[in-house]
Design brief:
The complex is a heterodimer of chains A (115) and B (117).
Chain A: E1 4-7, E2 10-13, E3 19-25, E4 31-37, E5 43-51, E6 54-57, E7 65-66, E8 76-78, E9 87-94, E10 104-106, E11 110-114
Parallel strand pairs in A: 2-11
Antiparallel strand pairs in A: 1-3, 3-8, 4-5, 4-9, 5-6, 7-8, 9-10, 9-11
Chain B: E1 3-5, E2 10-14, E3 19-21, E4 24-26, E5 32-39, E6 46-52, E7 60-61, E8 64-69, E9 74-79, E10 88-96, E11 105-107, E12 111-116
Parallel strand pairs in B: 2-12
Antiparallel strand pairs in B: 1-4, 3-9, 5-6, 5-10, 7-8, 8-9, 10-11, 10-12
Classes of the chains: A mainly beta (115), B mainly beta (117).
Chain lengths: 115, 117
Amino acid sequence: EADIYQTPRYLVIGTGKKITLECSQTMGHDKMYWYQQDPGMELHLIHYSYGVNSTEKGDLSSESTVSRIRTEHFPLTLESARPSHTSQYLCASSEYRSAGGYGYTFGSGTRLTVV
Amino acid sequence: AQKITQTQPGMFVQEKEAVTLDCTYDTSDPSYGLFWYKQPSSGEMIFLIYQGSYDQQNATEGRYSLNFQKARKSANLVISASQLGDSAMYFCAMREGIDTGGFKTIFGAGTRLFVKA
């Protein structure tokens, strides 16, 4: 059973629409992340959070924004979707694990298509 | 700047045989962690194994082992006794500053593994 949940799993939306991708985790992890991944390609960090009310932009420039009002919730918003935003968005969280350093737990991802 | 290189876009292996997926990395930080993740066609990312830069022994997790050669800056994943369910994309990843709270991870481009029956 997943400990980190992303909704929706798939989304097809028209250009110019505002969308919010949801991510919630039940593990109490302080650190959360959003990665963008084109099919079969590497992951690029677009946003991360140290904890509540703390968010930072990642290494890949993104027109999206995030918020972290509650520990368990880290939504990503696109104010005006464009075809170039078509991609898979993966949410993750982390804590220290003795057997895995700061191992990430990933959600199932949201596959976004903007038409 | 930190960097992860996976030079094998695709690999084939016969069921029940062992396979090695290559990964080299570049960092100037003496404290770092190396990770391998599996991504099946369904899209989720599954953490497989972790190696810390100060760890003396190679990490092992069931059928997965990490061949860590620090001087060569390589962290190859070895999967023993391949199974059909091992067919997936495999990503090597690195995080710098492990001992000072660093938590941003970068990923390589991935290797797609095909296991043949």
